[in-house]
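Render long-chain-fatty-acid--CoA ligase in 3D.
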Amino acid sequence: MPDLYTVLLGLLFLLPLLGNLFFPHVWLDMKKLLGTMYLGYKYNRGLQRKPAFTMVDIFLAKVQKHPAKPLILFGDEVYTYQDIDRLSNQAARAFQSQVGLKEGETLAVFLQNSPVYVWVWLALAKIGCAMSCINYNARSKILLHAIRSCDSKILLTTPDFKTTIEDVLPSLRKEGIRVFYLSDNSPTEGVEALLGQIKSSSTDPVPISFRASITSKSTSVYIFTSGTTGLPKAAIINQSRLLRVASVFSFCGVSSKDIIYTPLPLYHSAGLLLGIGGSLEVGATCVLKSKFSVSQFWDDCRRYRVSVIQYVGETMRYLCNAPQKENDRDHSVRKACGNGIRMEVWKEFLRRFGSIQIYEFYGATESNIGFVNYTGKVGAVGRSSLLLQKLTPYELLQYDPDTGEPVRNKKGYCIPIAPGETGLLVAKITNSNPFAGYAGDRQKSEKKLLQDVLKKGDYYFNTGDLLRIDHEGFVYFQDRVGDTFRWKGENVATTEVEEILTTVKFIQEVNVYGVSVPGHEGRIGMAAIQLKEGLPFDGGELYRHAKEYLPKYAIPHFIRIQKALEVTGTFKHIKGQLVKEGFDLAAISDPLFFLDESEKCYVPLTQKIYNSIAEQRQAL
């Protein structure tokens, strides 16, 4: 019997070692999932109260805990938790008494990044109102569309946008939409200045009765999609969704001791919901920047002793492309949280700026599914597991690259793909994992839904994204449906081609897309390129590089040189207009090049070559 006890005791010691050997991330997976479940349970309990315990209550609890702690650092300005509380109290009263806002209504903001954005948001939350966050780059028709989308009758902006506002003011007046400047004086007739009324309002706490009807499903903010194609849609962010997104920082180990650097636009979910919301959720200090600046980034991090940075899209590449400095590693940054970093950039970022823990995640503003890479696995956007799939059911499905739609079997159901294959990510819509949809036209929301996916009557949210999960459970983003194209019977993922081309020494940025060619099925590869300053385009070098690292069907046949690539406010490449213009010499003034196999080089696209392609005399 003693021998049996000895064996059992030995097994107890061996189990963790064996687990680490064969399943190296199992304990971390369990820890993160249990942490997520605890946060979900805690916030769900709070949201069930009447009125619901929401983000504004989390903020107020932090005000009570550390009123004098800095919440927002903006240039030389310092705003403590108590400062923001008092300012939001004043704004809340002015919104009620001067503007006439009532609980449940929406106010649209057309503002640049500043502390104002934060206390206006909290002010609206204190009186049970929603905030519609409009991209401050919007103009004319797009601006009017955004204001109308959320049924807002109030627009708050500043005299900085005087020309833009006056351009649309007649249309706004016709629709009964009132405009206020957040200033002491108004330079525009018919637009009232509101700052004076806010300053003269009481700083006393706003009674909780002013938001008595708020529930977990009440809208907190409207965040507009990036609008890479068509007019932007307003995603509904309810109170429950807001807490989920804001808790990502906690999931990544960010604490109240951290100083978080947010140079991202607050009209976007990464800046407002995660940057500001996440800072409030953990009780940290947030360094807010008016806009992202490569030259000021690390100086800001040193100045404010930043410990956590946020990134999206190509921002990390911009930092890596900046001239190297002796003090590149002289900073206190220990974590980076965001999405959109490419594998080669990830490696270069760590090599150059030191051992920073990168938490790359996957998710969309309106999506009901997300992943976080908490292991540091380079290139992955998260981890998958059976338990996670039980908590938030999702599938990777076979899809048709030409239509972007999932492939269905004879019974009409979708077909899950095997591990290691690329598939369309869809997430099941349940009571605990809902899809709130978009404001306005219900058809916009319905287009994102898939019915009868695995069984009759089920509903899934279609992310429109192509992902791959390897045999270890790591999740990799591959491309977006619509960006992926088919050529010569093969599927081409634009992100993979971009990853290869950006390692060419004279290329600063690249945007890959597929274009139609007369007489050919599918779309052929084309790349818009921004050259590094002072370096010329070398068609021979690019040809050799593409031939060495890309399969034949994925090599771009056309190159377009641009001074700067067009991106959204969150640095996503815009492809729509590029696809539309294709390689049409009559429509494009930028230099164009063609892959000439006989010359083993990309050569200037001449009218003669263009005609031979159009007349199907040129082999492709």
